[in-house]
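Dig into what follows:

_____
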Amino acid sequence: MIQRVWKIRLAAILAGGVMLINSGVWAAPVKLSLDDSIALALKNNPSLQMAVAGENQYLWKVNQAEAGKGFTLGYKHDDVRKDTPNILTPGYTYMNSFSNTLQLTLPIYTGGKLEGLIDQAKDSYKISGLNVNATKQQLKLAVTTEYYAVLQAKNLLDVSTQSVDDFTAHLKNVQAQYDVGTVAKSDVLQTKVQLANAQDGLIQAQNSYNLAFGSEPSALVTLITI
């Protein structure tokens, strides 16, 4: 499971345009599709970044383990000071000796130890790759679900807004007809009830819309961690 999912607020995208934050300055309006939104999440999601870093680390371990089967160049430096007692005179004779050694080694047989380390490193690398793919798929699913939730909320809000506009115009027309005596008072009251119900539906749709993308309309595209 993704421990931290970067949730994209997409309401302004579906409304026709978004403003992207760039170094604290509002940039020009752009539109983001579902693919754009997924790409943005894949680029910035911290859980995915950690998974990719782990995969790279295991790849380095594979290369390190395989390098153990090749030639190894070693260097050794010795610095020795010897104190030798004098035979004819009191005291000691001091002698310093230095040596530098370069050694090139190649493992011929290790009893399968090197091969085992290589296989272990490769298995860990494969598992880390599967973890990266799983994290990507979970993230894509989360973004897609969020995207269509906002889209559905936006469509419902549009329908509710249009319904209120229609009943408002209808009430105006019925009221005009009532004023000239062509319709009954009950027609006016019925239309007012329908308008009130449409307005209640609009309030509910607006709340659902705000909940779908957050309560800050100014944050047209905001990446948050949850």
Summary: The radius of gyration is 37 Å. The beta strands are 6-8, 18-22, 25-30, 72-85, 92-105, 223-225.
